[in-house]
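Bench notes, afternoon.
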Amino acid sequence: TNVAIETMTVSGSHSAMPIAQLAGNVSVLTAADISRSQATFVADLLVQFAGVDISTNGGVGQFAELRLRGSETNHILVLIDGIAVNDQSQGGLVDLAHLSTQSIARIELYRGPQSALWGDGAVGGVLNITTVDGGDVDTSTHSLKLGVGQQATQQIQYQHQARFDKGHYGVTVSHVSTDGQNISTVPGNIEKDGYDNTSIHSKLSYQINAKHELNATVHYVDYKTAFDATDFVTTGLPIDANNVSYGQQQSAKLQWLFTPNQSHWSLNSSANIHRNVVDNESDGELSSLTDATTRTISSIAQLDYSTQSLTRQYHVGVELDETDFEQRGPIDFGDPNQSQQISSQSVFADAVLSLTKNAFLNASLRYTDNSEFDAATDYRLGANWRATEAITWFASIGQGSKHPTFTERFGFYAGSFIGNPDLQPEKATTYEVGMRFAHQGFSSQLNVFSAQLEDEINGFVYDAATGGFTADNIAGESERDGLEWELSWSSAALNLNASYSYLDATQGEGDSRSVELRRARHNGSVNASYAWSDKVSTYLSGSYVGSKFDQFFPPWPQASQIVPMRPYWLVNANVSIAITPKVTLSAKVDNVFNHQYQDIVGYRGLERKALVTLAYKW
C-alpha cells in the first residue's frame, strides 16, 4: 500500500490533485501493488487497508460486505471509472465478491464523509477504482494468463492495450470458475458451493482536437453463485440446499471534455448508466429477483486560476439521477412484485486553495433534492499544512448522507414488510485530524477520527397497527471513534507495508447502548514483496481480524443471541518466476495454514487454496 507519497496524484476533488494538497485520509494501491499480490478479487486486497472490515459468507463468490470505520455496508460509495456501481436493489451496497482485479490499474480509498463531493451514500467513504485504458503504453501490448488450482479452480484472462495517433484504449476479458467449498459449519453438511464469473472491461479515449476529447467506458460482469439455505426449524444455521444466484452488472459511460485554448475554465460532461440484476432460484424455481437501473447525467465546470506557486482551483456542477427498481417473486403469503422509481437532482461545488505555499484548504458543498424524501445538504471542510519537507498535518470536518433504500420506502411482501414514506435520510458527521510523513522511500500516515450517525434506519421495526414489520429512524446516535495507522517502505528490491486500526463503535441510548455488530475493535495487516533477482520475486501477507460480535437467530420461539466471534490471522504467500522476458510462472497459496474461522455465524471461512498461473506478454 503506497501511502502519503508527495508526488502521488489522487482524485481528491473533481480533478486529479497532488496528495500534498489533500486534507484527508486516503490509501492507494497501484497496478504494481495489485500485480505483486496476485489477488483475484478486490475484497482480497482491501484487508490491508486500515479501518476496513470485510465479512464474507464463506468461500469464493459468496457475499462479501465492506464496512469502513464501523459504517454500515451501504454507506460506502464504490466508483469504477467514475460510475457508481452500488446496487440500489440490494439496499445500496456493493457485493465485493464479484469485483475482479484483472482489469484494475489503481484503487483509491477515501475515508470519512464524501457525499458533498461524490453524492448520496458516501457516508463512510469512497472506494474509487480505475481500470486500464492504454494510456501508459507506447504502442500496443497483449497479455494472456492461464491459471489452475485446488477446488477445480480455472482462470483465464486476456488483456490488450494500445495507443494510436489521437488516443488510446484498453480491453480486458476474464473468466473464473471453481467448484468452491462447503460453507456450512453444521455437521453432515458437505456440499460444495461453486462459482463462475465472466467479466469484460473496456475503455477508449479519443482526442478530437486540442479542445475536445471523448472517453467511452463499458463494463460487464456475469456471475453464478451456489449458496446455502437457512435452517429455520432445527439449527437456525446455513445448511446444504439447491440454491443458485444469477447476477449481471452492466455499466456504460460517455464523457466529453472541453478545454478552450488559453482559458481558465474547462467543462467535463458525462452520461452513464448502471444496471444490477440478481435472480435467486431454489430447486430451479424463482425465489426472488431484483433489478435496478440508474441513469446519471452530470456536468462540471472547472475554474483554474493557479499560478506556479499557488493553487486556485474551483468546480461547480449539476447532477441528475433516475433509478428504476423492480422486485419479483412468488406470490404466496404476500405479493412482492412491484416497479418503482426514485429521482434526484444535485448541485455542488468544491475548491482547492493555497493559503500559503505550504498550506491548503479543501471545501465542498452539495444540495440534493429527492423525489421521495427530504432534501439533504452535505459538506466537507479541511485544512492541510506542510510543516516540513517530510511532515504534513491535516484536519477536517464533514457531513455525509444516505437516503433510504427502495425496500425501506416501498416495502417488500404486502402485509409483512411495509414501506415507510416518512423516513429521513441518515446523516453522519465526522471530525478527523492526522499526520503524513514521507522521506526517502519511507512513508506513514496516522490519524484519529470521531463520527456520529444520526437518524440511522432500523429495518426491523414491528408495526402493531398492521402486525407486520417496517423501517424507522432510530432515536439517538451511533458513535464511531477510532485510530488508523499505515506505513510503507520501499527500496530497489523490497516493498514493505503495514497497517493497524482501532475502532470503538456503539449504538443506542442509555442502558440500551451496545457495541455494533460485525465490527472488530482491532484490525491489522503486514505484507512484503522481495525481488531476489530480476527473475524471481516473492510476496507474503498477513491480515489480522480482531474479536467482534454477531447476532444469531435460533428457531422460534427462542430469542436472538449476541455471539462473540473469535479473532484470527490469515496468511497468503506467492512466488513469481520470469522464465523468459515474455513468460512468467506464478504460484499462490491463500490461507497458508488453513486456519478455521468465521466472519458470520454459521459460515465457514475461506479454506486453504493453491493456484498456479502462467502469463505470456507480447
